[in-house]
Design a protein that fits this description.
The protein is built from 10 helices and 10 strands. By secondary structure, the chain is α/β, with parallel strands linked by helices. The protein has one domain (about 1-275): TIM Barrel (Alpha-Beta Barrel). The strands form 2 sheets. The chain has an 8-stranded parallel beta sheet with strand order 1-2-3-4-5-8-9-10, sandwiched between helices. The protein has a two-stranded antiparallel ribbon with strand order 6-7. Pfam families: TatD_DNase (PF01026).
Length: about 280
């Protein structure tokens, strides 16, 4: 049982026939659930449509920092409306991307804050995209109350590795690529980290160190398909069934069975997204 906690069946490169083919492949794989993640208005609406069509598919809605330049007050209200649809489980992916700067940084910052506020108003989990903006992403999340005691009070506590129950902020750092020190800071704040395909790359010691340092109770697995394809399929478009290879790499790094990683990360994702 696997949960691909972040994928893009709604990617604009797919034809309708290709989406149907991908769905068939998911249904014949070990993947039990996928989260189809919105990155603009059109993709968010399409994720909602996919979630309505397939029992194993759920959706998030929001604007990626690349697309922040296309947001305005009216569009944010449309996102708010989509967020209230059935099987929409989070606001995301939202955040900062200072690698490409497809949207101006001040525009990214403004709409990141506005979308955090929206998630707080709706008391929903948040899926974060952060690239080359580690400290500022954390600072804005803190300033906007994403780790506040009030926000944590909205969600059930989660069980830690020692059996104790810990506050859960329901903030997910998707495709986490930061240091193990940053990872520990986020976990202390009640965040969750999602690990994707690059952890399978031999030279990616940074993410491997995160996996070894952070208890499995705070980790999810994802593909970010069609991007970030794991070994042994690197160089090809990614797809949800390939999340198995990420889970298998976590098992090696943790020194436990693949079945245990698959089961625990699936349960973690269901808890994070509030899926019964």
């Amino acid at each position: 049982m696997l949960f691909d906690s972040h994928t893009h069946l709604n990617n604009e490169r797919y034809s309708e026939a290709e989406v149907l083919q991908l769905m068939e492949e998911i249904e014949s794989s070990e993947v039990s659930y996928v989260m189809d993640v919105g990155f603009d208005l059109e993709s968010s609406a399409l994720a909602v449509k996919h979630a309505a069509e397939k029992p194993w598919c759920y959706a998030t809605v929001g604007f990626h920092p690349h697309d922040a330049k296309n947001l305005d007050d009216m569009t944010l209200e449309l996102i708010r409306g989509l967020a209230k649809k059935e099987k929409v489980q989070a606001i995301g992916e939202i955040g900062l991307d200072f690698h490409y700067d497809f949207s101006e940084r001040d525009v990214q910052r403004y709409w990141f804050r506005r979308q955090i506020k929206l998630a707080n108003e709706l008391k929903m989990p948040i899926a974060i995209h952060s690239r080359e903006a580690d400290q500022e992403t954390m600072d804005i999340l803190k300033e906007e109350g994403a780790f506040s005691e009030e926000r944590q009070s909205w969600f059930p506590k989660r069980k830690g590795p020692d059996g104790s129950f810990l506050p859960d902020s329901r903030v997910l750092l998707h495709c986490f690529s930061g240091s193990k020190e940053l990872a520990k800071q986020y976990v202390k704040l009640g965040a969750t980290l999602s690990i994707c395909g690059p952890v399978t790359f031999k030279n990616n010691r940074k993410t491997q160190a995160v996996v070894q340092e952070i208890p499995l109770e705070f980790l999810l697995v994802e593909t970010d398909a069609p991007y970030l394809t794991p070994e042994p399929f690197r160089g090809r478009p990614n797809k949800s069934p390939y999340v198995e290879h990420t889970a298998r790499r976590l098992a090696v790094l943790k020194g436990i069975s693949y079945e245990e990683v698959a089961s625990i990360t699936c349960e973690n994702a269901k808890v994070f997204y509030g899926i019964k």
